[in-house]
Amino acid sequence: MAPERGSVLGLDAATEVRLRQESPFLWVNPGRRPLAEVRDALAVTRADIEGAADRLARFAPLLAGLFPELAPAGGVIESGLLPVPRFAARLKRQGLPAGDAVYLKADHALPVAGSVKARGGFHAVLCVAERLALAAGLLAGPGDDYCKLAGQPARALFAGHTLSVGSTGNLGLSVGIMGRALGFGVTVHMSAEARAWKKKKLRSLGATVVEHPGDYTAACSVAREEAAASATTHFIDDENSLDLFLGYAVAGLRLPARLAALGLAVAPERPLCLHLPCGVGGAPGGIALGARLALGDGVLAFFAEPTQAPSMLLGLASGRHDAASVAQLGLSGRTLADGLAVARPSRFVGRLMQPIVDGVFTVTDAAMVASVAALWRDEGLRLEASAAASAAGPHLVRAAGLPRLAGRDATHILWATGGSLLPEADFADVLAQAGREAGGEPAG
Ligand SMILES: *Cc1c(COP(=O)(O)O)cnc(C)c1O
User: Fold this and answer.
1) N or C: which end of the chain has fewer CB within 10 A?
2) 170: Cβ below 6 Å to ligand 1?
3) Which pLDDT band holds residue 442 (cuts at 50, 70, 90)?
4) Does ligand 1 have an atom closer than 6 angstroms to the CB of 241?
5) What percentage of the chain reaches a pLDDT higher than 70?
6) What is the pLDDT of residue 226?
7) How far, in Å, from the CA of 417 to the mean position of ligand 1?
8) Is 302's pLDDT higher than 80?
9) pTM above 0.70, yes or no
């Protein structure tokens, strides 16, 4: 039953063995290219991403009205770039070069959605709302007052439409929160990994949650088929949505301002390593592309995946992208990192990432849990397991001895993709598990 090594899957033998053994490692992407060589051929341009940033800006006054917590920032949904001195010292005690700097991008604390999905998921919902409102004549054009969309005529329009989405948890949450706030019907198809509290929260918002016993791809296909049969159902396709991707990518364009505020320079001589938790690839892919377009080739992007669900690694390394499933490696796809628990990458993101991403690394559940505990103890940060996958990056990347980093001090950004909405009891469970496992893993 096991496919022959290197032949059926299209992987080199060493990569296939490491994936099958579920041992954490960094796969270095031989397809990575300087931006100047590939920029004009990319399926997504800087102008496309700026279009998404403009859309988020048009909607900001409306969002500030819908969500009081956004009022202070004028409806702009952003997070801080934080120094993590105690955690950085821990990594250095464990061997990270003394000259490297470590920061954490606090998307786990993004207002309203509590995860990286606040940019992508919200943007995808706002695209649907804008299209419908323009078509119905409720908005005259992009210069109109978008606060009108909180009024009765717009709510009546949106109430006649349903947003549908397949989700391992956080995407459903972001689509549910924004969709319901605008008055849409929302149906979320959840895979087996989805946490109970996410389903409960969605139901409390008035969304319909459909639970699927199978994996993420299966939940998505059901949702896709249902939506295709209805003119008033809008499917937000995590495995193939450009609108989602562009929303995520806005974070990359915003990065230079965040770095400048901290006095951090980026150049090939002072490389910036982004460590990005990866599920289907939309969030890390968007951030990586946006950051490389905004900051150039001094940016190195690394994706983090569970050892049980290395879907992007498999897709890129085999060149088979969404045609390859981690099940073909004998992996279960089961992981505590619910946000990363996908068997196949996005149809278009994998191909788009071929020249963009520097590498993909895998992380065990035990290591993620240990990092959750360490970041809590050291920095008081509340992350979910998926977000903490990023913390394994600096060591693995340094251990790989990449020529682009040799002899240079690097800045590492751990992209913390979710966690602040985690209920106390769920967070306590993760910490308790870390306590039980300490000893085997470097929980500190
Ligand atoms: C969705 C998610 C990711 C990964 O995003 P993809 O677009 O699926 O690659 C990472 N971390 C968390 C917490 C998420 O919810």
Assistant:
1) N
2) yes
3) very low
4) no
5) 97
6) 86
7) 7
8) yes
9) yes
Ligand 1 within 6 A of CB of 418: yes
Asked whether 278 lines ligand 1 (CB < 6 A), one says yes
C-beta of 117 in contact with ligand 1 (< 6 A): yes
283 Cα–ligand 1 center, Å:
6
Q: Given pLDDT bands bounded at 50, 70 and 90, which one contains residue 8?
A: low
- What is the structure's pLDDT at 437? 87
| DSSP assigned state of 3 | P
Distance (Å) from CA 418 to ligand 1 centroid: 8
Give the residue from 324, 363, 373 showing the smallest Cα distance to 345: 324
- DSSP states of 180-239: HHHT-EEEEEE-TT--HHHHHHHHHTT-EEEE-SS-HHHHHHHHHHHHHT-TTEEEE-TT
195 Cα to the center of ligand 1, angstroms: 14
Q: State yes or no: pLDDT of 52 exceeds 90.
A: yes
Cβ–ligand 1 contact at 324 (below 6 Å): no
User: Please, are residues 306 and 278 in contact by the beta-carbon 8 Å criterion?
Assistant: no
Rounded-to-integer distance, Cα 169 and Cα 174, Å: 9
Q: Is 286 in the pocket of ligand 1 (CB under 6 A)?
A: no
Give the position, in ligand 1's atom list, of the atom nearest the Cα of 278: 9
- Tokens of residue 15, six digits: 């990569």
Domains of the chain: 13-46+77-112+245-438 (3.40.50.1100), 116-242 (3.40.50.1100)
pLDDT in tens, 78-116: 999 999 999 999 999 999 999 999 999 999 999 999 999
Which of these ranges, 2-6, 239-243, 265-269, 343-347, has the smallest mean pLDDT? 2-6
Using alpha carbons only, give the angle 428, 430, 432 rounded to the nearest 5 degrees: 70
End-to-end, the C-alpha distance of the chain in Å comes to 41
